[in-house]
Amino acid sequence: MHRIPPLAAIRVFEAAARHENFSRAAEELAMTQAAVSYQMKLLEERLGAPLFVRRGRGMALTDLGRRVAPMCTEAFATLGKAFADARAESDSVLAITAPRTFATNWLAARLGDFNLAHPGLAVRLDVTDTLVDLAASEFDVGIRGIPGPQPDMICHFLMRMPVTPLASPAFLARHALNTPADLLTAPRLSPDDDWWDLWFDSLEDLNCDGRLHSGIRFESQVLDGHAAIAGHGVAILSPPMFQQQIEAGLLVQPFRHFATYRNGYWLVYPERKRNLPKVRALRDWLLDAVTRAAGDDPFGILTPP
User: Fold this and answer.
1) Which residue, 11, 31, 21, 25, is CA-closest to 80?
2) What pTM was estimated for this model as a whole?
3) Which class is 99-305 in CATH?
């Protein structure tokens, strides 16, 4: 690796050489003239040769200084372009990481509206249930299912997670669900999901253990929802994540009662990203989109935990 003098001294030399004046270089770099002179002294000592000579009341470049100066200017121009390109790329791409259900069933269907409002901004959506270390990753923001604000992060509450049984009309035509107790004998999807216990425990007039150890077990709401739409059983789901399917009549809520899971969805990002225009744009759009989607908020999703 090439050994080069301190970059700070080279930067001072480049400015002083362009102006051929220490005072103007000091003004450009927000330094004192004495500091410029000190950096030049360090650089010349490192090189073992003078770069400037005193001429009258000013300074002039030596032959060595005149040979080196254009190459320094070109090098700084190249560095400036490299970082400008990196900054432009960063400013034009918004990287989001979000859990599978929220990303697939809620966010993906609405991101087109965000792109229409911000045509110069490309969105990259990463779908994962793993909590990404936002402070050390390339992602700008994350959407997380968490109980409350996280330390060292800017956190904006998005919505609660109400849960209730949902099933297809064809399934309900074959299996009469007149009371919640009928669910204890009906085919249920992911029957050992703790959301079933949460929902059963929230019923005042039904004291039972809602867990079963048999039945199809899926690893996400998305798969539970697809299986319920196909008529394979009743799923315990969060209705806001299946709003379109409910409105289309693909899923039906057999009981008006719902329980609320302890976690909610939050938009989170590191403090250092707070003032990025692309992050502010997503924050404002997302909070508005949640409010519009909630409508009259029948499930109380807008109430912070």
Assistant:
1) 11
2) 0.73
3) alpha beta
